[in-house]
Amino acid sequence: GESVGLHLPTLSVQEGDNSIINCAYSNSASDYFIWYKQESGKGPQFIIDIRSNMDKRQGQRVTVLLNKTVKHLSLQIAATQPGDSAVYFCAENGRAAGNKLTFGGGTRVLVKP
Amino acid sequence: NAGVMQNPRHLVRRRGQEARLRCSPMKGHSHVYWYRQLPEEGLKFMVYLQKENIIDESGMPKERFSAEFPKEGPSILRIQQVVRGDSAAYFCASSPRAGLYEQYFGPGTRLTVT
Lengths: 113, 114
What we know:
heterodimer, A: mainly beta, six-stranded mixed sheet, five-stranded antiparallel sheet, 52% strand, globular, B: mainly beta, seven-stranded mixed sheet, four-stranded antiparallel sheet, 0% helix, 49% strand
C-alpha cells in the first residue's frame, strides 16, 4: 500500500550544527506534507507544513524542501539545540486520502553538547 | 487557548475489561481524529469524526472498537474486551475545518493491558 518512510532511523548531530532529516513518500497523489516533532511521552508537535504547489518553505530555524519528481521531503534544522532532541515524523495527506494523515516511521535526532 | 486535551493520560486495564479514552478538541475545532502508536513506530490513523458523525473509520478494527463525537462533550474512543495487543499510545488530533490542513495533537493516552 501507499506509505511514507524515512531513510535514517537515528541522527546524531553536534550542538550548533545543522540537521537534515529525510523522508521518501510513495503516493504520487499526496498534496500536503507536515513535519512533526515528538518528545518522549508527549504528543506530536506541529513544526511546519508544505503543499504540493511549493518546493520550499521556511519557518523559524526550520526549512522544508519538497522534491515531487523523486517524491522526497526533507526537514532542515539550523543551529541545532539540545531542545531539538526528539523523534521527527513526516506525514502526508492527499485529497484521495480524505483527511487522514499517513505517518512515516520516524527519525530520532540526538544532539550532542 | 487550551490545546487538545486527552484523559486519562495513563490507563491500565485487565484483559476483558473496557477502556474509554476521552478527547476534547481545541476551541473552535469541530474535526477530530484518533491515531494509535506502537512503541518506536509512527502513528496509524484509526477514525475521523465531526460532531455527531463518523466520516472515515477505515483504520478502526472491525470488532471491539468504536468512536463517537457527540453534540455536547468530548470525543470518546471505546475499546471493549481489551487484549494485550491493544496496549499502545492513543492520540487524538483536531483541526478547524475539513481538507488539507494541519492537525494538532493532544498528549495521548497510554493504555496498558495486563
